[in-house]
Design a protein that fits this description.
The chain is built from 6 helices and 10 strands, in the order ααββαββββαββββαα. With about 240 residues, the chain is α+β, with helices and mostly antiparallel strands.
Length: about 240
């Protein structure tokens, strides 16, 4: 075949595309289990971080198994609708929050710590440049925040990205989601401001107003869906 002909060039290009595509597909399939495991371990680390537990790749699965004693999904009324293995872990929060609150399947992680039972609730929202998300650990009273863990896709380094800093996350500890039996969530306000409805509040990140508002909206919009569940947790604790 004439190597300078158009037909040769087309056939050669087609074969090369096929070969390269095959190699890339093989590499992708070979690496996918490792990539999926790395993503799962990162998620486990974030969940444990809400309990103030640090983990690395060598011990994250063991710590997760030790402290996360149960997980399930609840509906807007707070009733368990799925308690199968990994039911909460496998929920895609990005898709879940797009649903009407009455139709969402709400993940709950039940945790055992030296300070007693905690309930970890995932949250997902929007910052300045992209998605923000996190986990909120609530005490057995169904109201007091034990710890939080936040992360982001593309917030500004040194500004909005500071939602991952320990000092910001720890400022939520001890805050209450309910006041006088009514869900209030926690506000994130400029220093010196106070909530107008009596809700607990923390100081916003200086220079990151939009991201701080995003955290406030994320907490309110996601955690209010757990109102039914948290009220039941509170009732169970009161009856003990």
């Amino acid at each position: 075949m004439n190597k300078n002909s158009n037909s040769y060039q087309i056939i050669y290009s087609a074969i090369m595309v096929l070969l390269v595509g095959t190699v890339l597909a093989f590499v992708y399939m070979a690496l996918k289990p490792t990539q999926d495991e790395n993503i799962a371990n990162d998620k486990r680390k974030q969940i444990l971080s809400a309990l103030n537990i640090s983990a690395d790749d060598s011990n994250v699965k063991a710590l997760f198994t030790e402290h996360i004693v149960k997980q399930f999904l609840v509906n807007a009324e707070g009733n368990v609708v799925d308690s199968t293995e990994n039911s909460a872990f496998n929920i895609d929060m990005k898709s879940n929050v797009k649903l009407d609150s009455a139709k969402r399947k709400l993940p709950v992680y039940v945790c055992s710590t030296s300070d007693g039972t905690k309930y970890i609730l995932p949250v997902y929202g929007a910052g300045l440049w992209g998605a923000i998300w996190g986990y909120v650990a609530v005490n057995a009273d169904g109201s007091t925040i034990y710890g939080t863990s936040y992360s982001h896709a593309s917030e500004t380094p040194g500004l909005g990205a500071r939602i991952t800093n320990a000092d910001f996350q720890q400022s939520f500890e001890g805050k209450h989601l309910f006041k006088d039996g009514t869900f209030k969530s926690v506000d994130v306000l400029k220093k010196g401001q106070k909530s107008t409805d009596g809700a607990d509040y923390v100081d916003a990140i200086s220079g990151a107003t939009i991201t701080s508002r995003g955290v406030q909206s994320m907490l309110h919009d996601c955690l209010k869906c757990y109102n039914g569940f948290l009220m039941k947790v509170n009732a169970q604790q009161s009856n003990k």
